[in-house]
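$ fold --in a.seq
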Amino acid sequence: MTKPQKSMYKSLKKEAHRAAFVQMLVAQQKALGRYTHWAPAYLRKCLKKKARPIPAVRDAA
């Protein structure tokens, strides 16, 4: 996640908007063909903070 994407994510208030943003990120990274390390790292971060990750991240990891 780039710095502008991270600040954009933090500015989103509704959980549905945040979930859609993360889903867009997963799709973007899959289309680029790189950043395969991001989804498992994000999943670990969610689990560490006891947050429920969205299904797109669980499927990508």
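$ fold --in b.seq
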Amino acid sequence: MTTLEVKLNLPDSLAKEATRMGLLSPDSLQAMLREAVRSRHITSLAEARRKIAAAGIAPMTMEEIQAEIETDRAERRKPAPN
């Protein structure tokens, strides 16, 4: 685990209210950061899907995805050339 020290400059009223609500506790801050990271990943994936759709690339079926995975795994199992 990584330990970080974060310094925030908040208006007094916001700092008091956030403290009262328990939002400045390590657990709450961790939960908020996890949610923000998750949200950005979702946004990034949605943007990638939009670009793929705009490019006219048909989505892969589950069978096609599985075939790609199996091909990649087979390639990784091959011994390296001497």
